[in-house]
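Lab notebook, design round three. We kept the backbone fixed and only want residue identities now. Task for the bench partner: fill in a sequence for the structure below.
Input structure tokens:
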């Protein structure tokens, strides 16, 4: 991928996965719901895949999203180590 997703988009993606909704992720991150929605939509466009199916009952991670869960967690842990080392 010539233009990989920014870490912040991955962080938002992980928050949506772990919090279970755009609203909960927004609260957790201190962002607005529209910002989180737009960043997820942008990430999906950049990756060329759907990460969540949307329904009246909320979001369901796709198999692709589940496959990206552990790499996103590893990136989050590396970012935390970076900050602690600084």
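Proposed sequence:
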């Amino acid at each position: 991928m010539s233009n990989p997703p920014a870490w912040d988009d991955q962080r938002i993606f992980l928050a949506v996965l772990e919090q279970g909704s755009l609203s909960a992720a927004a609260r957790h991150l201190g962002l607005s719901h529209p910002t989180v929605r737009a960043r997820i939509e942008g990430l999906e466009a950049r990756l060329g895949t759907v990460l969540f199916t949307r329904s009246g009952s909320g979001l369901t991670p796709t198999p692709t999203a589940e496959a990206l869960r552990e790499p996103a967690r590893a990136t989050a842990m590396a970012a935390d180590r970076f900050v602690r080392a600084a």
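Keep this in mind before ordering anything: The helical segments are 7-19, 22-29, 33-47, 63-85.
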